[in-house]
Amino acid sequence: MDIEHLSFSSAPQKVAPFSHAVRAGEYLFITGQMPTLKNDSTELVDGGIEAQTHQVMKNLLEVLDAAGSSLEKVIFARVYLVNFGDFDKMNSVYASYFAEDKLPARTCIGVTGLAVGASVEIDFIAAC
């Protein structure tokens, strides 16, 4: 199986040493995205969990697009959430990005902290 490590200048700046995505066979593994501004990996988007979730999804869309994939091809999502009191608000924003009958499989994990002080991080596995 061919494995290709992908980094894109058009995608959000990275907050750590990783590839934006890795293509392995027919699958695309998208690194978890943070709610940071596209051109400044140290600056969180203003606002609460809703604004942060929107920014994470926008950043994921940038990586999917650069890799030649799309939300319609997302198979699995992992959500990392610092405060489970934000679960319903995050879910509302997250769900708005997908067709109601085409939701990917998903796990939501409670964590004690995320990079750059974020409240939410999401990663994807998608088809190429």
Main sheet characteristics: 6 strands, mixed
Question: What is the tally of helical segments?
Answer: 2
Task: Describe the global form.
Answer: globular
| Biggest β-sheet: strands ordered side by side in the sheet | 1-2-3-8-6-7
In which range does the helix fraction lie? 10-25%
Average pLDDT, rounded to a whole number, is 93
Number of strands: 8
* Rg calculated over all Cα atoms: 14 Å
**pLDDT < 50 runs, ≥5 residues:** none
Kindly estimate the percentage of residues that lie in beta strands according to DSSP: 25-35%
**Oligomer type:** single chain
**SSE order, one letter for each helix or strand:** EEEEEHEHEE
Distance, first to last CA = 14 Å
Descriptive tags:
128 residues; alpha+beta; six-stranded mixed sheet; 2 helices; 34% strand
Note the topology.
Elements: E1 3-6, E2 21-24, E3 27-33, E4 36-37, E5 40-44, H1 49-66, E6 74-81, H2 87-95, E7 105-110, E8 120-127
Parallel strand pairs: 6-7
Antiparallel strand pairs: 1-2, 2-3, 3-8, 4-5, 6-8
Helix pairs in contact: 1-2
Q: Can you tell me about this structure?
A:
By secondary structure, this protein is α+β, with helices and mostly antiparallel strands. It is built from two helices and eight strands, in the order E-E-E-E-E-H-E-H-E-E. Strands 1-2-3-8-6-7 form a six-stranded mixed β-sheet. Helix 1 packs parallel to helix 2. The longest helix has 18 residues.
